[in-house]
Write a structure and sequence with these properties.
This protein has 214 residues and is mainly beta. It has two domains: 112 residues, no CATH class; 93 residues, no CATH class. The chain is built from no helices and 16 strands. It has a ten-stranded parallel beta barrel with strand order 3-4-6-8-10-12-11-9-7-5. It is elongated. The model has no long low-confidence stretch (mean pLDDT 96).
Amino acid sequence: MWYSDSINAEDCMIEAPKNFRRCRDLSLKNVSFRNAAETLWHCDGVYLDNVTATGDYFAMNSNNMNVTGLNLFGNYSFDGCKNIEIHNSRLLSKDAFWNSENVTVYDSFISGEYLGWNSKSLTLINCTIESLQGLCYIDDLVMKNCKLINTTLAFEYSTVNAEISSQITSVLNPSGGTIRAQSIGELIIEKDRTNGTAVIICDDIKKTSDKFNP
């Protein structure tokens, strides 16, 4: 279904990849995509409720999405999306939210490398996140009451206002803003690569370094 408007699908299982492209006013409820590769591209006005999808490049360049109860298994999701709100979802997705703008995620679990790179206005509230070198190169990253598990080299060149209710394994060269955390395994600030304006509020920083040694 491409180039279609005002579509409503409920209690369905959809097998075909590359479905629902360049659609407007699309509502999917209790839908399972067994092969969701390259699905929901360039759509506008999308409502997802209790959707399960397996496949890479889900929802690329789509705008104005309201998502509740999404279970996604696939990499490179929501690339280039704008104006997205996600609730109570589980995203197992490498490179999620790359190049996105104005995305807010509530009460969700996200696992995957390089989360959120090159995005603008990414907000995470009451979320649990697991990521290798995630949350980097972001302009206006906001995190409220979030947990970071096994998350290394976070916040590189990001402007961030983060409240982390757990340990952060390592933090690398944040560009600015404030990071609050219970503890930080390693804080790496290279003065020749960052302006040093970020404020770190943490009573338990186990190791500090002025040089990143990969």
